Amino acid sequence: MTTAQNPIFQIEKEYGQSIWMDNLSRDIIESGELKMLIQSRGIHGITSNPTIFEKAISGNQTYDADIEAGIKEGKSVQQIYESLVFKDIRDACDQLKPVYDETNGLDGYVSIEVPPTIAKDTESSISEARRYFNEIDRENVMIKIPGTPEGIPAFEQAISEGININVTLLFSVQSYVDTAWAYIRGLEKRAAAGKDISKIASVASFFLSRIDVKVDGYIEEKLKGTDRQDQESKLTDIQGKVAIANAKIAYQKFKEIFGSDRWKALEEKGAHVQRLLWASTGTKNPKYSDVMYVDGLVGNYTVNTMPPDTIEACADHCSPEANRIETNVEEAYQLMENLKDPDVDININAVMDELLAEAINKFVKPYESLMSSLDEKVKRLATV
After folding, report:
1. pTM for the whole thing?
2. What is the CATH superfamily name and number for domain 3-213+240-325+353-382?
């Protein structure tokens, strides 16, 4: 396939959406695969998380030489972990720097998350974001802070200090709205201090597939308990549609907030829009299209970060024929309203709270598992 035939390039050039990849390992950096993906698949950024690094480091001999060097230097397991991860992030930043330069700082970013164990600790999130940003020392690195109630003020402070931030684990529209205004407040503080706000970048990572998995689970249970055709119809009409509807509503809020006079005052000082980033875009249910979270949410001023399988599926058969984030918006509002119907009765706010708690735990577990396996590897290599 030529790049001209690749739908990803059409999405980027015709519809103003950037495609990032949700995957990172030393293997793809050193083998040249990342450079190939940038050139042939139009990858304009990288996102990582503790799960990705656990898969990359655990059981992979590629990192053994650096682990052994860390042991000889007397580093702790935590310090060895950071040396491994920070090197990968720096190297990926360097490979994406041409994209960063060509897009004038719009793209070319590599995201790294602060430890998920501090997701509910504002002060620790601030200090770790500051430390990560300074130690990695790349202008195209983004530090990920979870969009928890404790994470939002940490994000605001980090922005005021000129740190690029990816606010992650956003599920509800309200959490996105809170994030967008925190971005604006952070920039306002920095501008009021007479500091430059033209070099700061941020994305708000709005999660998708996990919402449908959770809601569809509730629907399946309700379908088992009904023999009424009208109720069954109401329930099946919602299956697999909530995540995209929720994202479309968030996009309307995006347009409202970044069309406000308050934002325009910052834009005149050189501020860049905080883009919505669609995350968790790998389709979990085999009954649905494997590119439903790509095709359904093509839109200007957005980013879609995909796992490698979804990137290949999109390159093969995405059909970006319209700015679909702007289509059927009224239907999206109605679908979310239909969740309140007594025959459906799904409390979407409770669902979003549950998803956030689960998501934090899903990152804490692999992080702790990685630290444990790394500790074992350090002990083993130290005796060799």
Report:
1. 0.95
2. Aldolase class I (3.20.20.70)
